[in-house]
Write a structure and sequence with these properties.
Order of helices and strands: EHEHEHHEHHEEEHHEEEHEEEEE
Strand content: 25-35%
C-alpha cells in the first residue's frame, strides 16, 4: 500500500565513531515532532546499504525522501534515483539534513550540520530546485562500461590520494583529527604528481599534474564558483608546485581563494575527457571510485534531481 504523499521517508546515516549519534537522532525526532511532520525513519547499517534503503523508500511510495548524512550518502541516493524511470523520479523530492564528515553540497545551500531546526524547516517549506548531476563514464578492470553520478565533485590525483590515506589511517587511529594530521604528514613522502592527458573544450593538456577537480558543486573549495544548475562543470587543474607553495595553496583553499593560486588553471565546460591518468586515484563525492582502466569522460546531466532547498 502506498503511503500518504505528504509523509516523509527518512534515511538516517549515523556518523562513524560518533558517540553522539543517538542524541543527534533523538534531537532530530524532537524537532520533527514539534513541526508535526509525519514520517517513517530507517537507519543505514553501513555505506553499502544506503542505495538499497533508498530504493526501498521509493518502492513504498514516499515522494519526499530525506537523507540525514553527508556527501557520500547523498551520492548513493542520487545514483539510486537515476536508476528509476524519469517519470517516477520527477515525482520525488530529495532533501538533506547534514550529518556527515563532508557536507559540502549541503553547505552550498547554507545548511549547517549544527542547525537541525533550519534543515527541517527548509524541507517543510518544500521549495524545490531541479539540479544537475555530473556523470563520469569509465571502463572497470573487468572491461565493463560503467558510470557514476555526482552532486559535488570528482577529484583525480592528490586530493583523492589524501582522502584514501585519511580513510586508512582513520581505521587504525580512530580519531578523525589525528588521522588527518597523520595523512598530511604521510603525503610529504608520497607521490604528488601524476602524468595525465586531459582535453577540455578545445585545449589539450598533456603533462604531470597534482590534481584535477571537476565540480558541479563547490568541490571542497576547489571549484568555488560552480553551481549545480547551469548545465556546466567547473574544473581546476593544479600543476606542480614547491612544498612552500603547496602550503600556501592549502591556505588559499581554506580561505576560499583557491583559484588565486598561480599554479591553478580554471575552466568551465560541459565535458572533460581524460585520455589517460596513470596511477592517479579518483574520488567521487568523498569516496574512492575504484578501479578505472584507460580513458574516461565526465559530462553533465541537466535538471534531473528535484532537490529541496532553503
Amino acid at each position: 500500500m502506498a503511503v500518504d504523499s505528504s509523509r516523509w521517508g527518512i534515511l538516517y546515516c549515523p556518523r562513524k565513531s560518533n558517540g553522539g549519534s543517538r542524541k543527534h537522532r533523538e534531537k532530530l525526532e524532537g524537532v520533527l515532532a514539534s513541526r508535526k511532520v509525519e514520517y517513517d525513519i530507517v537507519q543505514s547499517e553501513s555505506t553499502e546499504s544506503v542505495e538499497r534503503l533508498v530504493r526501498m523508500l521509493v518502492n513504498n511510495g514516499y515522494k519526499t525522501i530525506v537523507i540525514v548524512g553527508g556527501d557520500t550518502a547523498l551520492n548513493d541516493a542520487v545514483n539510486c534515483l537515476m536508476n528509476i524511470n524519469p517519470e517516477e523520479r520527477n515525482s520525488i523530492s530529495l532533501g538533506v539534513i547534514p550529518n556527515g564528515v563532508l557536507n559540502d553540497f549541503a553547505k552550498f545551500w547554507e545548511l549547517k550540520d549544527s542547525d537541525i531546526e533550519g534543515a527541517v524547516d527548509a524541507i517543510v517549506a518544500h521549495r524545490v530546485r531541479t539540479v544537475d548531476l555530473g556523470c563520469i563514464r569509465y571502463t572497470n578492470k573487468n572491461g565493463e562500461d560503467c558510470h557514476r553520478y555526482f552532486l559535488n565533485c570528482v577529484n583525480v590525483g592528490l586530493i583523492a590520494d589524501i582522502m584514501n590515506l585519511r580513510r586508512q589511517t582513520h581505521k587504525l587511529l580512530g580519531s578523525r583529527t589525528l588521522s588527518f594530521v597523520v595523512s598530511a604528514l604521510l603525503m610529504l613522502f608520497h607521490r604528488m604528481e601524476y602524468k595525465m592527458s586531459v582535453r577540455i573544450n578545445s585545449e589539450s593538456i598533456r603533462r604531470k599534474l597534482m590534481n584535477v577537480c571537476i565540480g558541479s558543486g563547490p568541490g571542497y573549495g576547489q571549484t568555488p564558483n560552480a553551481v549545480p544548475y547551469n548545465g556546466l562543470v567547473d574544473v581546476s587543474i593544479v600543476s606542480h608546485t614547491e612544498i612552500t607553495q603547496l602550503f600556501h595553496g592549502l591556505w588559499l583553499l581554506f580561505t576560499g581563494r583557491f583559484l588565486n593560486h598561480r599554479n591553478v588553471l580554471p575552466f568551465r565546460t560541459g565535458k572533460v575527457e581524460f585520455e589517460s591518468a596513470a596511477h592517479a586515484l579518483i574520488g567521487i563525492d568523498g569516496r574512492m571510485l575504484g578501479s578505472v582502466q584507460g580513458a574516461f569522460t565526465i559530462t553533465v546531466e541537466q535538471e534531473v534531481i528535484n532537490f529541496l532547498i532553503p
